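Why does residue order matter? Because the sequence determines the fold. Keep that principle in mind as you read this record.
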Amino acid sequence: MSRYPAPALTRRAFLASTAASAAGAMLPLLPTSPATAATRDVSLRPAAGRLRLVTPGETAAWLYNGAAPGPEIRLRQGERLRVTVDNALAEETTVHWHGLRLPNAMDGVPHLTQKPIGAGERFVYEFDAIDAGTFWYHPHQKSSEQVGRGLYGPLIVEEPEPLRVDRDVTWMLGDWRLTKSGEISEDFGNRHDIHHNGRVGNTVTINGRVPDGFAVRKGERIRLRLINAANARIFSLDFAGHEPIVIALDGQPVTPHAPEKGLVVLGPAMRVDLILDMTGTAGIRAAVTDRFYEGLEYKLVDLVYDGTPVRERAPDWPLALPANPLPEPDLEAASRNEVVFSGGMMGEMVAEEMGETMGGETMEPGAPGGRMSHAHSMTAGMMAMMNSGAAWFINGVAADESGHDMKPMLSLERNRSHVIAMTNATAWHHPIHLHGHSFRVISRNGQATRHREWRDTVLLSPREKVEIAFVADNPGDWMFHCHVLEHQTGGMMAVFRVA
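Structure:
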């Protein structure tokens, strides 16, 4: 049974649209072994159905167990999860468990870690929840369309002793592109979306509903788990009149801190756990506003104060979460690997600019091994490949999602530390996700990060350089890609091999 309440649906809100190796290998287990750990059994049935997103009427969508989001899966750290997926769609699908460190064979990437689940077929995923935190699940088969039609859901792994709060609440943020009749637009994978900032919709939901108010009480402390399930929309949430404290990022604990400029930023696939103390008085409405897209700010939801206060002031309870069992990377002994993201609309212009600042050296699309060449050569090569259908490149290579034959771009020695230095040589934001591992974000544009936060998805701004570090302790071939799903479709994905 889901533990999150659906916000009241009381207003119509069309927002402005913006221009098989190691298959059976297991990670190190917690002290509880599979022989003694409790197993949580869950059934998921992806199928076509109808969903009430806006009033009046219903919208045809693709749903897990008849709902979008799908059921909230909750279990305790150290428990084992077994999920039986019965595919009732008319096409193949998979389920990827985003952010979870699990065996490669359970990762849900079609043709890389498993054969897709055919129409009418069944597949059983089974793995241990070694990390506590906020995670989610979604297809990796035709993901830009299947996620865009509603296939996603939250997965919460609770700490053995959860943080003390009055309420633990999940907000799964969704983004839909609807027509004037309230149906999902069928323009999936169009060239404009692929070459620009992806499929940004015109209707935003919390837990599958267009929200108006979220009921709160003075003195209440809420652990608010935010999950961005949108294909491409980036959120920057302003909890005006309140002071949210960040306690976890992508499921991994972080030193409790106020978000920069008071804004909670989530790129696609990213999660933030907040502590939110309710300091208002009965009867007031405090707007939560999304401010990411300049000139297109909008009210996401009102915090509606009602009823008798829980207490007169915020409780003095601990904020810090216990660390998960992640191996610490050794930066001095780490290998160093360079990754350059290029392409997209205006990509040739950015490549030339960055080529000048980097001494005229940039990555040439399609060059063997990603060899270096002058910026003007990159421009010519990029334009030729874009005209052939490719849009985005990692180290000069545009992946073919339908080709089913992706060779590893990087081979990383198992149980060794590695640094990935990433350069976003494009005009667009990219949330970059690595499967099977969490990593520390250690620098941005040459400056050490304040919190050295653990993440599995990091948001790169245009022209930004970011370094991440991790121990490659999970063997197999792992996806590494942009989680703007249209960018992934357009070529911005690769495979890292850990062996």
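Residues 1-35, 356-381 have pLDDT under 50 and may be disordered.
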